[in-house]
Design brief:
Blueprint: H1 2-21, H2 28-34, E1 38-44, H3 52-72, E2 77-83, H4 87-91, H5 96-113
Parallel strand pairs: 1-2
């Protein structure tokens, strides 16, 4: 799953970073004052119950690196976030007890990582 996941995010990050860095060196003081604040850097993933921990870890790694790159160039990034498909899609076919257990595990992962996937 990691191999299919990474290229999409790498391509998106490359295009975003290319846009911001393409202009080349500039006066940092005036640039800092004129740069917009970035509300959120968001990863969109299609969650798979069997591999969601790895998917979340990959997305968070990517998002943290993207945030650091933006901040290095003087942008203020408020947050990173992960967006998935609607939860009924990844709990489909589970009993209510199984769905609750899955969602508790998903929530525990969010607490552990310190972010809200």
């Amino acid at each position: 799953m990691k191999a299919a996941f990474a290229p999409r995010f790498c391509a998106a990050a490359f295009l975003a970073l290319l846009f911001f860095f393409a202009a080349g060196p500039r006066d940092r003081a005036s640039e800092m004052a004129s740069k917009p604040k970035i509300r959120a850097v968001t990863a969109f993933i299609r969650l798979d119950r069997a591999t969601y921990q790895a998917q979340i870890a990959d997305a968070l790694d990517f998002l943290r690196r993207a945030k650091a790159a933006f901040e290095k160039d003087g942008f203020e990034v408020q947050t990173i976030r992960i967006t998935t498909q609607p939860f009924p899609e990844y709990t489909k076919g589970l009993t209510p007890e199984e769905a609750l257990a899955f969602l508790r595990g998903y929530d525990a992962l969010a607490v552990k990582e310190g972010d809200s996937p």
